[in-house]
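Any chance you could type out some protein's one-letter sequence along with its backbone structure tokens so I can compare the two?
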Amino acid sequence: MRAILFSRPTAKLSLEALVRLLMLLAGVALLVIGLLFPLFAMLVKSLQGRSGDFIGLANFVQYFQTPALVNSITNSFRMALTTTVVVVGLAFLCAYGVTRTCMPGKRLFRMLAILPILAPSLLPAISLVYLFGNQGFLRELLMGHSVYGPIGIVIGMSFWIFPHALMLLTTALTHSDARLYEAADVLGTPKWRIFLTITLPGVRYGLISCLFVVFTLAITDFGVPKIIGGQFSVLATDVYRQVVGQQNFQMGAVVSVILLLPAVLSFMVDRWIQRRQVAQLSARAVPWQPTPSPLRDWLFALMCYAVAGVILLVIGTAIYASLLQFWPYNRTFTLQHYTFQGLAGGGWEAWLNSLKLAFSVALVGTLVIFFNAWLIEKSDGYQPLRQGLHLMAMLPMAVPGMVLGLAYIFFFNQAGNPFNWMYGTMAILVLNTLVHFYTVCHLTSVTALKQLDPEFEAVGASLKVPFWTTFRRVTLPVSLPAVLDISVYLFVNAMTTVSAVVFLYNSDTRLASVAVLHLDEAGYFASAAAMAVLIFLTSLGVKLLHAALTHALLNNAQRWRQAG
């Protein structure tokens, strides 16, 4: 009898250990198949000739001996550096106004500032054509310069990347110790010196991280330079031109490898800097609260309102253009551009495909990513597997969408690949999008899980409760706010992304973001604007629904979080 009593828990624990091992292996396999194998296939392709034979670095030599292609590297770095300076400088001022002043309308500004995230990067480029193009109603502001080229690329990318920088810098500026500022005031330290010796050092890690994030987004963006770049070539458009325009997959692989290098370098430096970061608030710290200063507050308010006005102008222009009969000759309002009948791009079917993709990625991706993060953070044993899974979970952030999409062609389109059946289906789009946006969701999950007391798992184990029951009944419900954030993040990015999926669709799986690109290429600019607006409105609706669900959750299902 005693042997039977003690054998049952042992068998139960062995079953849990086996299930945990299998789930860890499944998580590793997902990222190996969805990330490492495709990147390896792309690297191999860059070393092959058109006939598939190994030619070493000959393709790279040919690339650097072609001046038109080499100029793309210089152009990309110039645009990325210029955009980084503009975006980070402006975002820092706005974040400072939101966190360090008593400017009115902070909540409204923060709501308006995130709107560009809900639109594909193609939308600001289309709006800039209507604003500053040859028939634009604000073209005189450019004083004779053309918007098609460096100016348009910088403006368009600044619009699209600004919310990312603002969120990072707002977080960095939120936490500060009031005791440092009180001591400086007592000693009669000038305001400018306080800023240089206390404020800037306190946010240096967040500021440096923001610099690298903005630079990476700028140098890898495809949508803005494709629409408004004109003859000004950058690396991202070169990849598209080599693959789609010239069917030169080997040279496309070469450009992808070159595009991958600065993104990987930026990622590595950013991670190294974050490891050196130390806590800015001690247990005895006193949260700093800004004091009113009418002149300062209204100066920052006017600047933030001006930024919000530009955001509304760009989005409003796209909406306005989609409703006009024929710009600029017939300005009567019509909804015909939203019918998409007989036009390139796929029309409403493309929008429905995007909805399928976004909901699939949000559902599957949220569960997979959060559970994998739980295995890494909360489970016991298999330390090498858990560390390997965490390392691979961090890698997708360093891989541009264009690179990952092209790598999928080289890997999944191989005849002998057992996963070849996925090529040209919705499944490969779901996998590509999930992997592309994996890292941010993983970090969100890990951050949420670190806030949970390890005693939950310990108590469950002591009561002989299977770990999946503890996960389902305790961990997941407590972490629901983070889970909802992950799901809406995946949904919005699946709706708006174009670079990661532009190589992977077919006639049955064409997406709305790709439809915008094709409508613009075919000359249907108003219909392209209409499709971009449709994507924006869809993302906005889901974001509002997410806000309502989160509010209801925190006020009802998780009332215990509120102070008694």
User: Anything to note?
Assistant: Residues 157 and 513 are 17 Å apart (CA to CA). Confidence is low (pLDDT under 50) at residues 1-13. The two ends are 50 Å apart (CA to CA).
